[in-house]
Each structure stands twice: as structure tokens, then as C-alpha cells.
Amino acid sequence: MRRGMCPGTFDPVTSGHLDIIERAAGLLDELVVAVALSPDKGGGPLFSIDERCELIRAATGHLPNVSVRPFDTLLVDFASELDATVIIKGLRAVTDFEREFQMAQLNYRLVPDVETMFIMAIPEYMYLSSSAVKEIARHGGSVAGLVPENVSEALAERLARSR
Ligand code: ADP
After folding, report:
1. Catalytic amino acids?
2. Are 44 and 124 in contact (CB under 8 A)?
3. pLDDT tens-digit profile of 79-115?
4. pTM of the shown model
5. Rounded distance between C-alpha atoms, residue 13 and residue 145, angstroms
6. Cβ atoms of residues 45 and 11 within 8 Å
């Protein structure tokens, strides 16, 4: 049984993340989407950890071997706790490479039995990030197609409340 983990902040989950999750789920018996608390990333997340997990659960309901779990520990420790043998990450433009290469090396040094593997972003989502989505939504632009429908609704509701 091969279990993998797909970690990130997912504030909020985008179509780019979902593409990686779907492709990773097809390669593994089980995939855990590991949602990092990340209290300090980008001035603090827009959605709480529970909200981020719920948005991913709703958007991955069609994938029976995918589950969603929050974490606030060292990534490799959480992988060991889950009995996951592979960490799957999405790679966008070359700008992701340096940071991801460093993290993969450090994680390998900490726990060599957990392998990090990368799935290339498709061209359509190459420049898509959660921060770009929030920026567009904040200025009233359309995020249709960039995020699943439930996330688009959650963004509209959250931003209307904060105006
Ligand atoms: P972000 O960089 O958008 O804040 P996360 O920290 O939640 O995203 O990223 C989690 C993982 O998803 C990382 O491996 C990241 O490279 C990957 N990822 C993010 N956006 C995309 C995308 N558009 N296509 C493919 N992979 C992506």
C-alpha cells in the first residue's frame, strides 16, 4: 500500500493545486492533502485552517482515495506519523525550483526513507498561485476557472464581509 502526502498552505486551494492532487491520487493508493497552519505566511492566511481543510474536502469529494489533514509540525514528522513514504509537490515556473530543491534536500537529510517527488504544473496553471487569486478577488476581478466553484463563493463572501 503506497500512501503519499501533498503538503501546502492552500489559502485557498486553486485549480493548479487540484490538478496536482488529482494526478498524484492517480499514482498512489492513498493521498493525504496536508494543510500547514502557516500562521505567518504572507501576513497571515485569509482562511482559517479549518476553512482551508473544508474547502479542499468539498473540492476533492470525487476522489475516493484522497483525505485532508491539518498539521503544525515538521513536514517529515507529519509524513512519518501518517506512514507516508512519498511527498508530492507541484512545480511551476523555474522560480519554484530553488526553494523546492532546498526543502527536498533538507527533508531527505532529516528522514531519508521519505522521498520527495515533483509533478510539473500544466501550462494553463503555471502562473497560478493562491496569492494571485486573492489579489484578483480583492480587486473585484473574476477568478472563474482559477479556483473551484466552492472557493470562488467563499472568496466572494469573505471579501464582501471585509469591505
Ligand atoms: P502557494 O505557493 O500558492 O502559496 P502552497 O504553499 O499552498 O501554494 O503550495 C503547495 C504546493 O502546491 C507547492 O508544491 C506548490 O509548488 C504547488 N502549487 C501551487 N500552485 C500550483 C500550480 N498552479 N500548479 C502546480 N502546482 C502548484
Report:
1. 17, 41, 92, 130
2. no
3. 999 999 999 999 998 878 889 999 999 999 999 999 9
4. 0.94
5. 12
6. yes
Average pLDDT, stretch 116-132? Answer: 95
Q: What is the CATH number of domain 3-127?
A: 3.40.50.620
What mean pLDDT comes out for the span 120-137?
A: 95
Look at 63 and 38; give whichever has higher pLDDT. Answer: 63
- Which of 20, 117, 128, 130 has the most ligand 1 atoms within 8 A of CB, as the residue to mutate? 20
* Cell numbers for 133: 487569486
Rounded distance between C-alpha atoms, residue 118 and residue 27, angstroms: 12
- Exposure string for 48-72, b = 16+ CB within 10 A, e = fewer: ebeebbebbeebbeebeebbbeebe
Ranges 3-17, 33-47, 53-67: which has the least confidence:
33-47
The residues, any chain, with a CB within 8 Å of residue 27's CB and separated by 6 or more, are 4
Could you state, in order of their start, the residue ranges of all structural domains in the chain?
3-127
